[in-house]
Amino acid sequence: MTQDKETRQLRTAVALLRITVGVIILATWYGNLRDGLYTADGLTGFFNWLFDAENGNGSSLLVYKQYLDMAVGPVAGPFATFQMIAELVMGVALLLGFFTRLFGLAAMFFFTNLFLSYFGGHEWIWTYVLLFMAALTITIGAAGRKWGIDSRLYRTHGDPQIPFFW
Q1: What pLDDT does residue 1 have?
Q2: Does 162 reside within a domain?
C-alpha cells in the first residue's frame, strides 16, 4: 500500500470519528434540551442527582461537587444557557468539520468534566475516557480537513496563523 493511500485512509477514519463524536454530542444535547437540563433548576437537579448516593448516580469525587457548588451553583441559570449553546455549537462544528481542532479541544475539556462528574458512581466512566481519546485524535488528526469546512479553509489559507483552528 502506498503512503498516499494510507494517508487517505487515515484521514477518512479520523473524519468518520469526528462525525460520530459530533452526532453523539448533538444527540445528547437534544435529550438534555428535551429533559429541561438547560435551565437553572434542571442543571441544579442534575448536579444533585450526580452526587446522590441513594437515588442518583452516587458520584464520589466530593471535591468536584464542592467545585460545582461554588463555581457553577451561584450562576446556574446563565451557566445552563452557556452549556446549551456550547454543546450545540461544539456538536455542529464537529459534524461539519469547522474549526475542528479548537472544538476538539473543547470536547476534551467537556469529556474530562463528565468523567469527573460521574467518577465513583454507577455510570461507566470509561465512556468518557474513550470520548476524550476520540476528541484528542480528532484534534491531533486535523479531522476537519477531510469532508469538512476546514478542508476549504486549509486550501484557501494554508495553516492557520492561530494554532488549533483548522
Answers
A1: 74
A2: no
